[in-house]
């Protein structure tokens, strides 16, 4: 059992964040996302009836899961890993290769769990050789991350702010690529390399819903309502609109 003081961890995390420009909206976005994912991790873990020590541990992991994003934004001014760096891999390296996990937690008993959950939170698929406990924590963090990503996209990509610079004209006119639609029909996440257009990216984002593992996760998605806002996107391309309607049927009631 790893003892965690949330207040102490928050203070240490805020100290880490103090080196970044918090007037930068991208930094603010990830700050809020980090705390929200931590809270969602705790909520999912509580729903599974796990002990308080596990709830606190997964809260910590949720808070730290995107620690690599802040340096990514400072260096490259983007969230696109393909145009910058692997933010999850960098985060795991910062915490463990550079030893900064000890800034947040003195006990090393859960290091293997934290390392895998941070390093694999954005992977298309988890590695097959994880222990049962590592996989549990990885899946919880990945569910929580997806849930809040729907909020981020609803507000910052397909909402009024459009801070992620989505080309709305392209979104409304481009065609869904066949490989992307085939992944959707299998009710699977879309590999990033398949997305060729803005509408492909949008469909891939919606397909994250299929990957939610724990029963409470889609319940939270429905309660928050952000995913419903994302489903309201329509296309002026007739074939694309038909495919979006097909995708809505695959997703079902949300």
TrEMBL record:
<dbReference type="InterPro" id="IPR003607">
    <property type="entry name" value="HD/PDEase_dom"/>
</dbReference>
<dbReference type="InterPro" id="IPR006674">
    <property type="entry name" value="HD_domain"/>
</dbReference>
<protein>
    <submittedName>
        <fullName>HD domain protein</fullName>
    </submittedName>
</protein>
<dbReference type="Pfam" id="PF01966">
    <property type="entry name" value="HD"/>
</dbReference>
<feature type="domain" description="HD/PDEase">
    <location>
        <begin position="26"/>
        <end position="159"/>
    </location>
</feature>
